[in-house]
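Model the whole thing, not chain by chain.
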Amino acid sequence: MKYLKPWWSDGGGLLHLTILLSLAGLRLDVDLDLYLLLPPPTLLWDELLLAGGPTSSAYALSPFPASGGWGRADQLHPKGREPDPEAEPEGRLLREVRALGVPFIPRTRVDAWLVHSVAAGEADGAHGLLGAAAAASSAGGVGASVDDSSQAAPGDGGDPRAAASSPLAAGEEEKAPAEPTAQVLDAGGHANQENEVLRERHEAVDHSSQNVENEQRVSAQEKSLPQKNEDESKIADKPDWEAEKTTEPRNERSLNGTETAFSLEDLFQMLSSQPENSLEGISLGNTFLGSINDGMNSSTHNVNFSQAISHDVNLHEAMLLCPDNTFRREPVARTSQPQESFLQLNSHTTTPEQTLPGTNLTGFLPLVGSQMRNLTSQDLLHDLDINIFDDINLMSLATEGFDPMEVSHLFEEPDSDSGLSLNSSHNSTSVTKSNSSRSVCEGAAGCSSDLESLSHHDLEGAVGGYYPEPSKLCHMDHRSDSGFCGDLAFQHIYHNHTYHLQPSALDSTSRSFSWHGKSQKVSKYLNDTDRNLSRDERRAKALHIPFSVDEIVRMPVDSFNNMLSRHYLTDLQVSLIRDIRRRGKNKVAAQNCRKRKLDIILNLEDDLCNLQAKKEILRRERAQYNKAINTMKQKLHDLYHDIFSRLRDDDGRPVNPNQYVLQCSQDGSVLIVPKELATSGHKKENRKGKRK
DNA sequence: GGTGCTTGTCATCTG
DNA sequence: CGCAGATGACAAGCA
């Protein structure tokens, strides 16, 4: 049995924690006790271990072992029983952190992991961070360095810091083998160990292909996991989009693990190198959007910053897949903490019930990555819809004149309108802002202490305006479940990014518009201007409608109604939205109608030309026929007189054509008949014909 | 300023 | 009956 070393076991861990917290300037009013109370996110792997699955040799990664060291979670915290934080070494950490007066205390596992990652990465270099990140991504999202068996076992009561070696050393010796991703990430120095671990796993699952490539085995293992693990089978039962998010990213990370490590390190180097403006130093717009663009352009190098911070997803997954769910808070408690709204907004990749409670502001970094890791091509579009812009909101908060005290104040005062101060932050603490980042911030600055203010920011993002009366505008149901909030956030944030397009642009955009593909909105949004807004757009801006006009118009009926029902909108807003939709629909209908009318007119003109041509042809034919008829009449007349000129009666005198007519009988003989008889005979024949 | 065209909007009809 | 689309009529904007 091998145990993982606690991240704080590194002597520099706490120092780096302090550094990070200081440079971040954040105070996230963390209840570390709660954080420490959370059961380890390793139950997934514990389940695998207990099930004798392929991870039987995997290390359980837990940042919350009872002994203060990384250890087997099942030995650390019996399922369903929460450890006493004060009785555990973590309490010392908490006390030390508090004693240092650090304004930032990780509240959540994500925070802790983030801090830990930075600490490990700075202490160990890129590799340490890489290993931690890899382990985090692989073993349930908790970055960890693997200690050898000599490390203090859980529950032995040893001081983890005293017993710990550097995470790097531990990581160098034994990379967290909980998932192949870690080996892929650290393939440089641990090929043998990787193979060993993989071999063990394959033996455990009686896998036939032991000689295949590591990647092949990795993929095979990953494919076999859902079949052997009950928890993962739940993932398979999820909808496709959800299943993809829970399964695909592993391959993604495996493929891009190296880039992930670099990006992650770069991220935190930026953090470290710019203490005062650390968060601003992260060119969110560039990094984030760059990742988006990369993801859209290429599926191979798409994940930059996003992937680097994506490991938290496994933390999510591991926690979410925790069978006993002891770490979850009750929904009531969840709703009682407004700051969790951000979590809910950020947890779309999971089911509403799977949201990670307590994820605070710092959680947005990994969460961004969690959604971005899949954003390779098509998935990017969908994930953008649901998740990314939520994260933009959060990250933009960091880049937009981020005032840590203000933010902490936001978190402390859920009902205040302090979220609106984010507007003022545009010209307050922000040193320099690129246009792009500013656009992002304006469009998606949705981080506030409560959902209401969040919605206001989203409104701002949607309409690019301000909030003269924020409390009267859009209201979001933060009392509803997290899924609601997630979807809500997805909707209004997603709406942000086509909003200021000119009608033509909107039209052109909307033609390629897909409810599952909105990546264009990112770049469109960056070019956002208030110029040439239509009347409805201005109206929407005035009322802070959190949706784009184009979207309001083009949204399917069901989606439209669903959208209205899911948002707390004033009657005025609803009325305006319906008017916008009606006018937009009618505008399109009028355009279609006119086009159709023009088409009809053109068709009629064409028909008229064709008919005139046909008429002319017929007229000419008629003239020709009449001419032929006249010719034949003339010939017949000539022939008639020629015949009579040659006829002689019994006396040898010429026959008068005025008294006689030629009559052809049925047998072909020609008779000379007096006209009286001929006319009477014709009458009789006519009568017979009429009788017949 | 008048004119014709385009476009948006409203009212009404239609399926 | 409600709704979305179609369409006639009107007005505004523009060249």
